[in-house]
Design brief:
Elements (H helix, E strand, L loop, with lengths): L8 H34 L4 H23 L6 H28 L7 H26 L15 H23 L2 H4 L1
Helix pairs in contact: 1-2, 2-3, 3-4, 3-5, 4-5
């Protein structure tokens, strides 16, 4: 978010986040359809659980759109709510998908892939908690931080956790490659 606060970076940041959200929507919808099709013969998960997971994932994408639209320094409260929705919904989505993957074993997934997905989900969940805790302790919204400054440590730890969760989402989606073939 720090890179997307000033023009022209803010325009590029917003555009790229919106493209990422769109690609995530497409990926989640394809995953939803795939599970529905597999479920016709295997009945490993309730259709309502699959729909619920899709809705949670779509909420996360809406949160991404909010983050992209409302820059961190311009409207910090709206930006932060969008980030909370994006990251919170994303963590719930990948956790639900991990559980559904286990339920589809061994017919539709290998246990190795399920273990990888669950490991990514657990790491993301663990990183999400300190991300929220440390971000909530930051008393000022600013861009240029220097070590030793008030709240620097909170910002630093929160940023590391935020990147951990974000990369967790990317790696999790990469585990769908074999399923989508």
């Amino acid at each position: 978010s720090d890179t997307g606060t000033k023009p022209p970076e803010s325009g590029i940041f917003g555009f790229m986040i919106n493209i990422s959200a769109l690609l995530a929507v497409i990926t989640m919808y394809i995953r939803y359809l795939l599970i529905e099709k597999q479920n016709e013969s295997s009945h490993f998960v309730r259709s309502s659980c699959n729909i619920f997971s899709l809705c949670i994932g779509l909420m996360g994408c809406i949160g991404m759109g909010i983050v992209a639209t409302f820059q961190e320094l311009s409207v910090p409260s709206v930006h932060d709510i969008g980030a909370l929705v994006a990251f919170g919904s994303g963590v719930v989505y990948i956790t639900l998908q991990s559980i559904m993957s286990y339920k589809s074993c061994p017919q539709w997934n290998t246990y190795f892939v399920c273990h990888i997905r669950m490991a990514i989900s657990v790491i993301s969940c663990i990183a999400f908690i300190p991300m929220i805790v440390f971000a909530s302790r930051i008393s000022m919204t600013k861009i240029d931080w220097t070590p030793g400054e008030k709240d620097y440590t909170y910002h630093f730890v929160s940023a590391i956790c935020e990147w951990t969760v974000a990369f967790g989402f990317i790696f999790f989606f990469l585990t769908f490659i074999r399923d989508f073939q």
